Amino acid sequence: MKKTNSKKINYIVHHQTSEQKNKNPVVLRIILSTEHTRIDFGYAAPWIYIKGGWIKIAPYTFIEVCGTKRRYHLKKTWNIPFAPEIFEFETNEDWKVFSLYFEPIPIKDCSINIIEEENPNDDDFNYYNIALKNIEQIELIE
């Protein structure tokens, strides 16, 4: 009889302000587990660039639980390169979904900040006061 491995993850509902809903990329989903905090994003290539521009993420990006000083560092990415590498779009109608994996934050209701740059400009992926509500725990069997 083959033994199966299982792990539990928490699906999170996050409340977005109108400002957060209009950001590009948009936060699609946040998943908490004891192994990592995963944040999924959707990005639409800007219409202002003929070929849609490019995206990347700074390797020193971190999240923090509001009201604390602790930083939870970025461990890995899926479908977006670490700077200085870039992903170049082919047209301004392209889009991309990507994920950032951080050290695990406490599994509880809270608000978080996602910080790519501490002194950001308009091109940086900084998000503030994303409200998280722990709604459901699901067991994954591998």
Compact description:
Helix content is 3%, strand content 49%. It is an all-beta fold.
Overall description:
- With 142 residues, the protein is an all-beta fold.
- It has one domain.
- The chain contains 1 helix and 10 strands, in the order βαβββββββββ.
- β2 and β3 form a beta hairpin.
- The longest helix is centred in the N-terminal third of the chain and has 4 residues.
- It starts with 5 loop residues before the first strand and ends with a strand.
How would the blueprint of this fold be written?
Layout: E1 6-15, H1 18-21, E2 26-33, E3 37-44, E4 54-55, E5 62-65, E6 72-78, E7 87-88, E8 95-102, E9 110-115, E10 127-141
Give the domain tally. Answer: 1
**H and E string:** EHEEEEEEEEE
Strand order of the largest sheet: 1-2-3-8-6-5-9-10
Q: Which stretches are low in confidence, meaning pLDDT under 50 for 5 or more residues running?
A: none
Number of helices: 1
Distance between the termini: 15 Å
What percent of residues adopt helix (DSSP H or I)? under 10%
